[in-house]
Amino acid sequence: MSSQRQGSPERRLRADRARQAADVIRQQVVGRAYPGGVLPDERFLAAEFSVSRNSIREALDLLREEGLIDRVPGVGTVVVTEKYAHGLNQLMGLAETLHEHGDVTNDVRALGVIKAPSSVAARLGSPDVVYVERLRRLNGLPLSLDLTYLALDVGEPLLGLDLENRDIFSLIEQTSGRSLGAASVTLEAVNADAHSAAVLEVPRGSALMVVERLSHFACGRPVDLEFIRMRGDRLTMRAELRRS
Amino acid sequence: MSSQRQGSPERRLRADRARQAADVIRQQVVGRAYPGGVLPDERFLAAEFSVSRNSIREALDLLREEGLIDRVPGVGTVVVTEKYAHGLNQLMGLAETLHEHGDVTNDVRALGVIKAPSSVAARLGSPDVVYVERLRRLNGLPLSLDLTYLALDVGEPLLGLDLENRDIFSLIEQTSGRSLGAASVTLEAVNADAHSAAVLEVPRGSALMVVERLSHFACGRPVDLEFIRMRGDRLTMRAELRRS
């Protein structure tokens, strides 16, 4: 690396320098740090990162491949995808989280009572469950595909309600008169299979954030098990951690 | 869907049923719920999920494409990748987190003092920083590629130390005599570019979990900014959330 103080002679590949710059630029893009969504020109970025213009071009290529930025003739390099942050510290529905960015609507793809697979039945303490499958959109654009299992007594009151426009969390709290408490969440990065990709309107193989979330009533009873595929190019997850 | 109680006539595609089963099976695989890492046979799974054997075959195909399971003649369908959980509630280094699974070692790919890009300098309050780039392995297999920027006074004491075998968190706390406090974390799912894929030994385009983490001393001073690419097929992130 170009170590000004250590003077290490180690040679770094251009690809390594490009990745290093791309990560910092990605963070600026996602954090909306560039005024008007226009990136500084290559010469400025090369100076900023103490690398060659070729390395900067390669860094911008990486972010273009991710679908974050694009070149617009006469304007320069611009941000083309807004990514929205979903908080991991507080348990919130998507519409609650994103209300300042626009309207969340849901295509209800399936809805009904089913016999639960045994692992789902065990986790919800309910042999029959309400199954809800929704394609969720923000301002009409697909954000996530959610497969939801609800304990029968909690899910049945939702069957006639406005699942197209309301978060399941708020409907559960309204119909049960009880508050949700904690949830356990597992996150994975997974490549989209062909069919999920088609539903979410992304190329096959696109990186998705797959979230499995088991939500409980405040009393500790598990009531809502969800498997969520989020488009990686449209959602980020944010959390605050403590050392101890 | 096959709604036993509602009797909804809605037709569901086999791909939808396969995804639905695959999500529950994935959760069982990652949670190590199948004894000996051998999945039940197709007939059992078809009954379990109330779907056809063709749907189960398609579900298993999805998980095989993700690299989670494989068919072994004479044995059946077996789990082939262990995924490790990294906690999102407590701020821990990788070696601390995974100590029960084996030894974490680090290939130090770059190390030295550099002039920080302005956004990094601003976040760390340090115009010069120590830059450390590590390929992190568990029992020899690549898990993540970490690009780390440390405030100069915090990073310089680490330059001669055992970065191959120790977490940066524990080295910082040892050399500074101070405790780390909170960290802000952003998670994204991103497709691996060609060069990062080669370093992490995955196919180009593989889904990676990209983590950006800014860690602070307990007093609130930011000291450690990291950009981490985790192999999606080897790490999951776990968190506990509260409703309010």
UniProtKB/TrEMBL annotation, chains A, B:
Keyword Transcription regulation: yes
Matches recorded under InterPro entries: Bact_HTH_transcr_reg (IPR050679), Chorismate_lyase_/UTRA_dom_sf (IPR028978), Tscrpt_reg_HTH_GntR (IPR000524), UTRA (IPR011663), WH-like_DNA-bd_sf (IPR036388), WH_DNA-bd_sf (IPR036390)
Lineage: superkingdom: Bacteria
GO biological process: negative regulation of DNA-templated transcription
One Pfam family, short name: GntR
A GO term, aspect molecular function: DNA binding
Ranges of residues in domain HTH gntR-type: 15-82
Keyword tRNA-binding annotated: no
Keywords for this protein: DNA-binding, Transcription, Transcription regulation
CDD domains xrefs: WHTH_GntR (cd07377)
Protein name in the entry: GntR family transcriptional regulator
Organism classification: Bacteria, Bacillati, Actinomycetota, Actinomycetes, Pseudonocardiales
